[in-house]
Automatic annotation (TrEMBL):
SMART domains: IGc1 (SM00407). The chain crosses the membrane at residues 176-196. This is MHC class I antigen. The gene is Tiru-UB. It comes from Tiliqua rugosa. Residues 79-167 form the Ig-like domain. The lineage of its organism: Eukaryota, Metazoa, Chordata, Craniata, Vertebrata. InterPro entries: Ig-like_dom, Ig-like_dom_sf, Ig-like_fold, Ig_C1-set, MHC_class-I_related, MHC_I-like_Ag-recog, MHC_I-like_Ag-recog_sf, MHC_I/II-like_Ag-recog.
Length: 221
């Protein structure tokens, strides 16, 4: 804070070269070639200037930049959490927890059933940036609809004094983008099955056509 811990060190070719001790105003050379530079730099005007820089100018510059960036570096934006649901296959249901608008990036989001963390059947999205500098992420889990009220999306973040536990909204349905992620692969599989099913019919048609052409040729002969 007061500049007493300021230091300057140099390296060369991946190894230590010179280190400056501002208390003794001397350089420590790591090897023979560094001794030449050490003698040149241990001129009184040079070391006094470097001592002043480490104790005054360097500290002042650092404080100035910290002051300029304090609003951004120390700001905290609380997360907004929303839990939606969608019918899944085999009578199950998918819950989706969307967390957005938070800063800083570090966040802990988990599903909890009756207060216990549930990792199995959980799909987790990556934490991504928003255009305004905040972040968003998501978490989903497949459950038995009868247990819906027992599940909460648990969020811990520096932007809120206490953890958030959010239940599913009764009238909330799954967003279109999340449904599309599951629908596109299904459509692709359906298209492949349709193609495979139709292909034998086309082959049979070609075989029948060739047979008819052969019959016509025989008749003409």
């Amino acid at each position: 804070e007061d500049g007493r811990r300021g230091f300057r060190q140099y390296g060369y070719d991946g190894r230590d070269f010179l280190a400056f001790d501002k208390e003794t105003l001397t350089w420590t050379a790591a090897d023979g070639p560094a001794q030449i530079t050490k003698r040149k730099w241990e001129v009184e005007t040079v070391v006094q200037r470097l001592k002043f820089y480490l104790e005054k100018e360097c500290v002042d510059e650092l404080r100035k930049h910290l002051r300029y960036g304090r609003e951004s570096l120390q700001r905290k934006a609380p997360p907004e959490v929303k839990v939606t649901r969608k019918d899944s296959q085999e009578g199950l249901e998918t819950l989706l927890c969307q967390v957005h608008g938070f800063y800083p990036k570090e966040i802990d989001v988990t599903w909890r059933k009756d207060g216990e963390v549930r990792q199995e059947d959980t799909f987790r999205g990556v934490v991504c940036p928003n255009p305004d500098g905040t972040y968003y992420t998501w978490l989903s889990i497949e459950i038995d609809p009868k247990d819906r009220s027992r599940y909460l999306c648990h969020v811990e973040h520096d932007g809120v004094p206490d953890p958030l536990d959010v239940a599913v909204e009764d009238s909330a349905s799954m967003p279109v983008w999340f449904i599309a992620v599951g629908v596109v692969p299904v459509l692709a599989v359906a298209g492949v099955m349709f193609y495979v099913k139709k292909r034998p019919e086309k082959a049979a048609y070609r075989a029948a056509s060739m047979s008819d052409q052969g019959s016509d040729s025989s008749a003409k002969a």
